[in-house]
Design goal:
The protein is an alpha+beta fold and 432 residues long. It has three domains: 3-176, no CATH class; 220-276; 289-426, Histidine kinase-like ATPase, C-terminal domain (Heat Shock Protein 90). 65% of the residues lie in helices and 11% in strands. The protein has helices at residues 3-27, 35-46, 49-54, 61-83, 88-96, 99-109, 115-140, 143-152, 155-174, 180-259, 263-276, 289-303, 322-340, 394-405, and strands spanning 307-313, 349-358, 361-369, 375-376, 382-383, 409-415, 418-426. The strands form two sheets. The protein has a five-stranded mixed beta sheet, covered by helices on one side. α1 (3-27) runs antiparallel to α2 (35-46) and α2 (35-46) runs antiparallel to α4. The longest helix is centred in the middle third of the chain and has 80 residues, at 180-259. It is elongated, with a radius of gyration of 36 Å.
């Protein structure tokens, strides 16, 4: 037993205490009443470390194997006592703490021949890294943030992190093995298979995250539109309040004019009152008040690009949900307004919409001018000219998805400077 062996024992205990501290910080474990017993068991499991390093001749192989098993699995029992639970996350912490010291030690062995010294350095490096993480989290007061992030991560991420850490350990350990060929067959080749699985898993997770980001972007846009709509309602309500405030005075003035038999002046006064009120009059009457409000809002937006929406027909109130109606019409009108906005002239542009329902079918047609080449692919998608190609096109895909939901058909055409979208849907008796 050398001084280095005892230093290894001390740094190993320090490392384990820091691991426990970091785990409590980021995993919100409840305080255990018997945690001190857990600390005692943890120290007890680390005590055989010097014997396991030096492997003295007086110690039989069976005893060394038993001590090795106690050294590893005793820590799992100690963690369970300290954290007051037997769970997968405790097992994960145990497994995750095994590979880093091994990686550090094998890196040190590439430069230093002394095994004990490399072991000591590996525990020192691991302790310093964990201590730095703890200090950073405390100084930035990020414990709660990190805790929430860890709780929200999918289980696949944890498995992949564990897998890649063990693969790294296997590759690093292989550098110091004298029989590379045998080690390659036993460990590195299976690790390569694990690495391929890890790569595919990362790709799958990336696709999932991209889909989530797309959904979030779409929801954010919907929320933004709702905010604008409610701001508009609030503005109209403010105008009503202002008008109601002056209503009494207006009635007094009108009463005076009528009493004085000033009929013409009274009529002129009524006209002036109408002009004073800038409350928006109803511009559309589709038979569906939700779509009326939608068209009013979109027409205001169209006006910003010197365009106007012209509507003809009726929109059903049953057979298709208002949500699906809004998905179809809002996305179609947004695309039409965007196309009109690409015109650099001051000419007034028209977005013509026709809608009707009969014999259990809903018919929707929208036509708008286009000012650049539009390529319609065979799968009914549009080749975009936008720089943000990743997120553009979801409007059309949402329209087509909704059309398929109602066993409908959609046709698009772009010729003679005009884009047309024609939709036919089968209405459902249960939809309201």
């Amino acid at each position: 037993m050398t001084i280095t062996s005892y230093l290894v024992l001390l740094t190993n205990i320090t490392e384990q205490f820091l691991i426990v501290r970091l785990s409590k910080t980021v995993c919100s474990f409840k305080a255990s009443r018997i945690r001190y017993l857990g600390y005692f068991v943890l120290i007890l499991t680390i005590l055989p470390a010097p014997l396991l390093m030096n492997k003295p001749d007086f110690c039989p192989g069976e005893l060394l194997l038993a001590l090795q098993l106690f050294y590893f699995f005793g820590r799992l029992a100690a963690y369970s006592i300290i954290f007051s639970e037997i769970s997968l996350r405790v097992l994960y912490i145990f497994l995750q703490t095994m590979s880093p010291p091994q990686i550090y030690m094998n890196i040190c062995m590439a430069f230093i021949d002394d095994y004990e010294l490399c072991n000591l350095l590996s525990f020192i490096i691991d302790s310093v890294i964990i201590a730095c993480i703890l200090i950073y989290l405390k100084s930035k007061k990020m414990e709660l943030v990190v805790r929430k992030v860890i709780e929200s991560l999918p289980k696949k991420i944890y498995i992949n992190v564990l897998l890649i850490s063990y693969i790294a350990a296997v590759f690093v350990m292989g550098e110091n093995k004298p029989n590379h060929e045998l080690y390659y067959k036993r460990y590195i080749l299976p690790s390569m298979i694990g690495l391929v699985i890890f790569a595919f898993s990362i790709i799958k997770i990336s696709i999932s995250e991209a889909e989530k980001k797309t959904t979030i972007d779409m929801l954010s846009k919907q929320v933004e539109n709702e905010v604008k709509y409610y701001e508009k309602i609030n503005s109209i309500y403010g105008e009503f309040r202002s008008f109601r405030h002056d209503f009494k005075n207006h009635m007094i003035c009108l009463g005076s004019l009528i009493e004085a038999n000033e009929k013409d002046k009274a009529l002129d006064y009524i006209t002036e009152i109408e002009n004073l009120s800038s409350v928006e009059k109803k511009q559309f009457n589709t038979g569906n008040i939700i779509i009326d409000a939608l068209l009013n809002d979109k027409n205001d937006r169209a006006a910003t690009v010197n365009s106007v929406i012209l509507f003809k027909g009726m929109v059903p109130t049953t057979g298709i949900s208002n949500v699906d109606l809004c998905i179809i019409m809002a996305n179609a009108i947004d695309n039409a307004i965007e196309a009109c906005g690409k015109d650099t002239s001051d000419d007034r542009k028209e977005i013509n919409i026709e809608a009707d329902f009969q014999h259990g079918y809903f018919f929707f047609n929208i036509a708008n001018p286009i000012f650049e080449a539009v390529s319609i692919k065979s799968n009914n998608t549009i080749a975009t000219s936008k720089s943000d190609k990743e997120h553009h096109g979801f409007g059309v895909s949402n329209i087509l998805r909704t059309v398929r939901k109602y066993d409908g058909e959609a046709e698009m055409s772009a010729d003679s400077g005009k884009f047309t979208l024609d939709i036919q849907l089968m209405l459902r008796a249960e939809e309201v």
